[in-house]
Amino acid sequence: MVRVIIFGLCWGLLWAEYVPNQVLVKIKPEVSGIQTQGLNNVFSAKLKNLLDSQGAVSIRRVIPAESASGSVPRQFAVKAQSVASPLDRYYLAEYPATINVELLVELLKSDPEVEDAQPNYIYRLFDTVPNDTYYNSRQRDYLDQIAAAQGWDISTGSAAVTIAVVDTGVKSSHPDLAGKVVDGYNSLSDVEGIPASDDDNGHGTIVAGIAAAIGNNGTGVAGLDWNARIIAIKVFDASGTSGTSTVISRGIKKAADKGAQVINMSLGGISSNGDPLFKDVCDYAYDDKGAVLVAAMGNIKPENGFHKDSVVYPAALPNVIGVGSVDRNDNLSSFSVQGSGGHTVELVAPGEFIFSTSYDGTGYTLGSGTSFATPLVSGLAALLKGQNPALTNTEIRTILRDTAKDLGASGRDAWFGYGLINVYGALTRTPYQGAAGSKLEKVLSFPNPARDRLKFSFQHDKDVASVDIIIYDQRGRKITTREYGAGLAGNYVSPEWDLKTDDNKYLANGSYIYVVKVTSADGSVSYGRNVLTIVR
């Protein structure tokens, strides 16, 4: 591993870590010879001589090519392929010993066959050592901070949505993750499947639990999305220091190809040229596959080159939501990287003393860092996708921004971005559609204004098994939940309420918002929303 200090145009010190004997080369689309059977013969003799000038070079594709049967060929057995995708044109040149990486990159950039060249950057996980002490109240503190409980009254997610956790793997046997990890890939060894993507570090399991641990099951913790499934993408080994541009990019592409609607990347690094490979693979996942991409802004650690104003990738990329951390009082965490220039934080979420699943397979732990703020954003993105599968990644990103709690200077600022995520605000902003539930055509309350009692009425095209009516004040704070069970079957439903709260006191005069959640006999869910006024 090499760390080089580069004086950039910002007149500051930029640290970049990279593999000392590897270079990434992106060839131009028009370069001939791609159909050769030996990848060492892909380049022209002139370009091959340039690569050989640093020693005996071995060349292989960065993203393994898909064969006709869909399997991934090994080593150099490659069939004729299209070079239409930028990802098909990346190659890794590897040498048996340390080389002058910076010099070779500059020489390659000047070659007419080469579109771009870069080091194989090294990326790090962003976390501190977890505290194993169990503080059950800590989870509620940070979830209340982002109005999660109010949001869960509206939606707890959908199993039709998958979150890819690009990390150290996920301990799929944990009881709070059991049955949720539906697929996996080990990018280090290029092996498919859940056993290969098992977590031997712990970081990925914590992240997965924060985003999507099973909720309301009487066990452990609740993730932000109770029902979303998880694709475990292993890009770090047990030490947590093995992630590189090539390994992580293969993992991101695999996650996108497996259909992940949300891709969580609680990792990052600093590169001297923005890491074109990372940009291309994130563009592929976002533009071609429609995934929401979420990444940690990073933790300040000067010994590794991470400072307050560092530009950290992939969070700095335009198609990625960069997430910073706040404490319980909505102050920016002392460790949270802010970024600089046009690459500052987009959203913030709680990131201190976050309680989640432990990779020992049964336990729970506390951790702090932007790594653990990031999956809260990913979990909310999954909730929105589950509530309305027709939403695009751009629309989800807009909803997250527009409903965030504004912190710091008015509007977007360099410290908090658009602000703190708001689960209830985002879900009430999102129309219902499809697998997550349908919108009730009309929900009315009468008399309205109400004095002593009122009824909620709506029509439904299915037999109704239960109705939950949640009352909120105008600031979005939940006042009470009224539950109505069986016996409401039919097309016309009209549950009644005595205007009392859970402690048997009458609700004060004023205007309120009510959300109606209807569960049908077949298990489908529908929602409605309206306003009522109480006047006595």
What does this structure look like?
The protein has 10 helices and 28 strands. Helix 5 (203-212) runs parallel beside helix 8 and helix 6 (245-257) packs parallel to helix 7. It has 536 residues and is an alpha/beta fold. Strand 23 and strand 24 form a beta hairpin. The strands form 7 sheets. It has an 8-stranded mixed beta sheet, with helices on both faces. Strands 1, 2, 3, 4 and 5 form a 5-stranded antiparallel beta sheet that branches. It has a 5-stranded mixed beta sheet with strand order 20-28-27-23-24, with no helix packed on it. The protein is 19% helix and 27% strand.
The helix content, as a percent range, equals 10-25%
Largest sheet: 8 strands, mixed
Uncertain stretches: 1-15, 32-38, 67-83, 127-136
C-alpha termini separation: 73 Å
Strand content: 25-35%
Number of E-state strands: 28
Structural class: alpha/beta
Q: Which strand order do you get reading across the main beta sheet?
A: 9-8-10-7-11-13-14-17
Total DSSP helices? 10
What is the arithmetic mean of pLDDT? Answer: 83
The radius of gyration over CA amounts to 26 Å
Q: What coarse outline follows from CA principal-axis ratios?
A: elongated
